[in-house]
User: Which sequence fits this backbone?
């Protein structure tokens, strides 16, 4: 049987349930588990309202300073360069900024670094090149907060710098003209978890709401909302918490994405065969984000930027086709690197796994690291050579080990780094590799408990089959869009009788079941669990999601089983 640990959340207090008598105990528990404990928080979560739940961009302490500098540059027709990142957060962020700056009459260009040749964030050569090309105002998006030295160089060359970012905040901040970042010290902005595209959106929101805005108010509001398709893609792709303002941005962004005016997105949807009517956060994660990311991973992110920005139908079709092909190549190459890395696995007693090959494509290390984390359920760092003297790496982690914090503790060994609690990127000299590996391994050994290396399923509440009905399924549906800190609710049910079972799928790796408890009968599907020896008449314990199955115009409640144990195996 499976070795997954079933972690069932602590029961909610009767006092809390009594505060909200209109809610079923199951729904109240799901809300409580997401930290929603007041009527206002619950109302915002279940019924996000764009007019009420999006914060004033001018709550950022440096926003007025940033907006004044941008309007000054527009007035003087000074060149503004937007410096972005090469991923599915950074590219949409750059498009969000340039779209509005162009609409306001700015003289604007974009610079996206090459993933392998330049790496993440500002770099000295790029800053010098931009200064040489007469850039006067440099706006970063989804990067910049760690570029202390590069901002100093920019200042010395006469560039003003505005940083918009959301990554881990270093001890010493760059001496930028303005820093728009929700987590810097003393920042009053109430929501702390915007992605790079979200922070860029707050800046353009402020520009469109300013008294100097040349667009009339009604048009400015329309412009703002038509950007939400890109905000939704960036937010989901970067896996920031889908709560609070992010939840509202994504909920409305998905409405906009379904009817996007962007030719590039329209052609991507057509070329990739995406059924936009079935749009959800999973589709953004597995259909939109990988294609945008493929540009930077396989060649240069400019391809994705041009696709999202073009007004030409023929260009849009050509770029969408090219991006789709790049994504297919990326998938094949990722699988090759994944297999090569798995062949290196030796001592699984180590809490942090390192994989290294000099000629692996740097653009794929993060993707492969993610796959390896799922395979081995422990933090992974994948390394490759940038050149003879320099190694670049990507790390992915699990709960309990803040991988970017670990990098910060080894910053003296690194040339550059950045990231989040569970994802990072960095570069270092070949000479420092052995010391770096030892230090990181020691930190993982100290911080990770043995138990956390076992895969676990976080179950919200016991939900007996007899308590499942359409009202509950439809209320749980209001918890969408799902994502970080708002996962699709997982339930557990015990002593469920199997009345039918068969293997399905091309490779017969899935199980289709009919399950009965008392007077309730439900169809269920268990993906990837056909290896379990299940038989009619057995009683099983299941961990599952609620799902609606739609077929030939009929709707039925279906259970999506995530794990199965023979009843009594937990006792």
Assistant:
């Amino acid at each position: 049987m499976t070795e997954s640990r079933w972690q069932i959340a602590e029961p909610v207090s009767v006092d809390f349930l009594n505060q909200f008598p209109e809610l079923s105990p199951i729904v109240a528990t799901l809300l409580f588990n997401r930290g929603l404990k007041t009527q206002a928080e619950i109302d915002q979560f279940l019924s996000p309202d764009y007019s009420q739940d999006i914060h004033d961009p001018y709550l950022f302490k440096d926003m007025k300073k940033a907006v004044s500098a941008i309007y000054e540059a527009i007035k003087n027709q000074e060149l503004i360069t937007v410096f972005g990142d090469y991923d599915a957060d950074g590219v949409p962020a750059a498009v969000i900024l340039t779209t509005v700056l162009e609409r306001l009459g700015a003289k604007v260009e974009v610079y996206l670094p090459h993933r392998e040749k330049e790496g993440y964030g500002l770099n000295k050569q790029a800053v010098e090149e931009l200064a040489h090309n007469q850039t006067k105002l440099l706006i970063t998006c989804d990067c910049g907060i760690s570029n202390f030295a590069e901002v100093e160089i920019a200042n010395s060359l006469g560039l003003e710098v505005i940083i918009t970012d959301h990554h881990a905040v270093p001890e010493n901040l760059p001496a930028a003209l303005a820093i728009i970042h929700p987590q810097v010290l003393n920042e009053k902005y109430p929501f702390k978890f915007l992605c790079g595209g979200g922070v860029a959106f707050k800046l353009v929101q402020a520009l469109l709401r300013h008294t100097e805005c040349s667009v009339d108010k009604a048009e400015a509001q329309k412009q703002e909302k038509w950007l939400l398709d890109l905000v939704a893609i960036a937010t989901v792709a970067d896996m920031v918490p889908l709560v609070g303002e992010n939840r509202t941005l994504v909920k409305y962004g998905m409405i906009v994405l379904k009817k996007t005016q962007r030719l590039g997105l329209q052609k991507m949807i057509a070329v990739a065969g995406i059924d936009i009517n079935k749009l959800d956060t999973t589709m953004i994660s597995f259909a939109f984000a990988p294609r945008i990311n493929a540009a930077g991973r396989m060649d240069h992110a400019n391809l994705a930027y041009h696709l999202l920005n073009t007004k030409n139908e023929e260009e849009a079709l050509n770029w969408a086709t090219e991006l789709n092909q790049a994504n297919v190549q990326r998938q094949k190459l990722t699988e090759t690197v994944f297999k090569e890395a798995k062949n290196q696995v030796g001592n699984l007693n180590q809490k942090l796994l390192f994989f290294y090959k000099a000629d692996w494509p740097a653009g794929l290390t993060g993707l492969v690291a993610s796959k390896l984390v799922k395979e081995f359920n422990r933090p992974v760092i994948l390394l490759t050579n940038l050149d003879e003297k320099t190694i670049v790496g990507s790390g992915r982690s699990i709960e309990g080990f803040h991988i970017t914090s670990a990098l910060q503790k080894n910053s003296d060994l690194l040339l550059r780094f950045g990231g989040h609690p569970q994802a990072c990127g960095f570069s270092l000299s070949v000479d420092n590799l052995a010391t770096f590996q030892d230090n990181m391994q020691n930190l993982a050994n100290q911080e990770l408990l043995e138990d956390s290396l076992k895969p676990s399923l976080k179950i919200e509440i016991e939900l007996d089959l007899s308590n499942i009905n359409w009202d509950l399924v439809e209320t749980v549906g209001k918890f969408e869009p799902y994502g970080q800190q708002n996962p699709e609710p997982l339930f557990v049910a015990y002593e469920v009788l199997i009345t039918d079972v068969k293997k399905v799928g091309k490779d017969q790796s899935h199980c289709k079941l009919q399950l009965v408890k008392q007077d309730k009968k439900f169809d269920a599907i268990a993906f990837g669990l056909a290896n379990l020896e299940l038989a009619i008449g057995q009683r099983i314990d299941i961990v599952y999601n609620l799902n609606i199955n739609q077929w030939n115009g009929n709707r039925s409640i279906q259970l999506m089983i995530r794990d199965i144990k023979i009843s009594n195996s937990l006792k």
Summary: The CA atoms of residues 314 and 451 lie 55 Å apart. The longest helix spans residues 313-342. The mean pLDDT is 93.
